[in-house]
Amino acid sequence: MSDECIFCKIARKEVPTQPVYEDHDLLAFDDIRPVAPVHVLIVPKEHMVNLNDAGKNDVPLLGKALRLAAKIADERGVAESGYRVVVNNGEQGGQIVPHLHFHLVGGRPLSPGLG
Ligand code: AMP
Ligand code: ZN
Predict the structure, then answer these.
(1) Does the Cβ of 32 fall within 6 Å of ligand 1?
(2) What is the pTM of this model?
(3) Sign of CA dihedral 4, 14, 39, 41
(4) Kind of pairing between the strands at 26-30 and 38-44
(5) Range 29-65 burial, b when 16+ CB lie within 10 A, else e
(6) Pick from 71, 57, 75: which is nearest to 102 by CA?
(7) Ligand 1 pocket: which of 6, 13, 31 to mutate (most atoms <8 Å of CB)?
């Protein structure tokens, strides 16, 4: 946990949010600035900056986050139409919030490939 980290604050309920999903180690909520009709963030409650911090012990958690992305995609009705799951890592990876999170984006055609 980090005192100043916005996603730690959300995980600690110091910043209110409407969880899409929550259990003891993962939290999912809608992105505050959605880039598509479906834009959900899946966030491990434990503070890790990005995938560089994820160790062998975190493999089940990472797998669970990806499975959760597919489940939420289904619940939001985009499983069949298609969606993207993205992790931005570090400055050149476009990461702004330094707490590991998975973007689930869908509900409109996304450009093929990655920019
Ligand atoms: P990234 O570039 O991968 O670090 O993306 C961070 C994402 O977090 C952006 O899409 C922001 O819109 C989103 N975000 C930042 N603060 C909040 C917040 N308080 N609640 C929900 N989403 C947020
Ligand atoms: Zn954090």
Answers:
(1) yes
(2) 0.97
(3) positive
(4) antiparallel
(5) bbeeeeebebbbbbbbbbbbbbeeebeeebeebbeeb
(6) 71
(7) 31
Q: Tell whether 30 is covered by a domain.
A: yes
Does a structural domain hold residue 54? yes
Nearest to 8 by CA among 102, 105, 101, 103: 101
95 Cα: distance to centroid of ligand 2 (angstroms): 13
The residues that bridge with 39 in the sheet, in sequence order, are: 105
How does pLDDT run across 46-69, given as a tens digit for each residue?
A: 999 999 999 999 999 999 999 999
- Quote the DSSP letter at residue 35: S
In the chain, the number of structural domains is 1
Cβ-contact 30, 20 below 8 angstroms: yes
